[in-house]
Amino acid sequence: MRADRVFIFGMDCMAPQLVFEQWRHELPNLARLAGGGAWGELRSTDPPITVPAWTAMMTSKDPGTLGFYGFRNRKSYDYDELYFANASYVKEKTLWQLLSRNRKTSVVLGVPQTYPPKPLNGTLVGCFLTPDKGTSYTYPDEVKYELDRLAEGDYIIDVKDFRTEDKDALLEHIYTMTRRRFMVVRDWVKTKDWDFFMFVEMGVDRIHHAFWRYHDVNHRLYEKGHKLEFAIRDYYKYVDEQIGTVLALIPKDTQIWVVSDHGARTMAGAVCVNEFFMREGLLTLKDKPAKPTKLKTSNIDWSKTVCWGEGGYYSRIFMNVKGREPQGIIEPGDYEKKRDMIKAKLEALGDEKGNPIGTVAHKPEDLYRTVNNVAPDLIVYFGDLAWRSAGSVGMDALHVFENDTGPDDANHAKEGMFILSGPGVVPGKREGTRIYDVAPTVLSTLGLPVPEDMIGKVIE
Amino acid sequence: MEPRVTLKIPRPLYRRLSQLIEGTGFASVTEFAVYILRDIVAHQKGDIESALSAQEVEAIRKRLKSMGYL
Which of A7, A45, A360, B69 falls 20 to 30 Å from A423 in CA-CA distance? Predict the structure, then answer.
């Protein structure tokens, strides 16, 4: 496979079962690309979350090597607040940095974990982690004015007011964001010089999280005939059409990708991980709140605490180890025994009726080549990601179904999707493709050497 | 922005770099040199500094929480 140019459509959270099965006949542009190319599931990172997944894709390095395990990470073994792993923390080379060094030009638009922007040979627009548009979120800086000019006067970094009950307004806002981003893409694909062009659309992820209950017959809140029943399908059709308009502008010999960083699945509910630890006597608070409250480490009685957890689409568990944490109580010699005990308890925890849900608690050293910086002691997928993790305390329950920590319609699935089309690509379904395989394949396509420390392999 | 400083490099190297950047999107040797130097600095190990202010961190935290990431 060789091509002079590579174009990647990054669709955050695009689900393989929807593209390749359920709506196969309703997405003509994706179907045409897949029909003439390689396609299949793309195994995401552990955890399958936007950060670190896109950076893992762009560096072909696992989260352990990258040294971040989610959006927020521990800086040290102190009990401080977690820090955000933005682009400043990415120390491994991304695809466009390798290409810049080889004097190839890139356009990088909205790829997660690219704020604050780093220089490259080309143009970069920072991701949805940009705090606001007053900051320098593009490289070169003046590109941000061009963005607004091309995008109806207001380029949208990410949806605002995601928690609104006004679903119609939210839906319209997602469409506006996507429409404007594609306007920029259509212009830049013609007017910018590029060997590599990548943009990531966040709308797919946002629409899943906000509208999955209307779409999935297996969601507990599904109502047949609801006016939003086809909101996700119609948006997929819109995105497919928009992709079609860009494809019409891309030179013929270009290698084209459509990729997602993870998939989507119905969310059953949330497991209150810290409530569970309190009931098991593993976590003690100084003051037990009467209503749902964020767990603050300043409210933890460390002399009586073995472990605590973080909320999110998956859970991270931290243990309180003597000589490691400031007021640790687990003897270092007991660490493995205690960790296995916590793992076994979490994996045995069922749903609200006690039925098994298939929770898996991973040890980081089993997942990654190396474990840099401060990793969680356990990385937990409740119900194999059918359940999210609620970190709040004062919940008075182990399971919640409507909570204040975020929308609960969809969770992430470990399998994202990919389509790869272009000169020399042998058509057909591929099995076992991993997110780490994207960067080596792109380098090889452009005739550049694949660094030996990349985890992935070139897709054949 | 702080005023820039001047670095001196050998002229043959400058000529070689001028050839190297032809058709690459780098408008000048200076632009290319700044890119390469920043790239090296960005990959230095050591204390990692966040470029974000406390207010920016809070804005991002709120957004991520509302979207269910946290």
Answer: A45
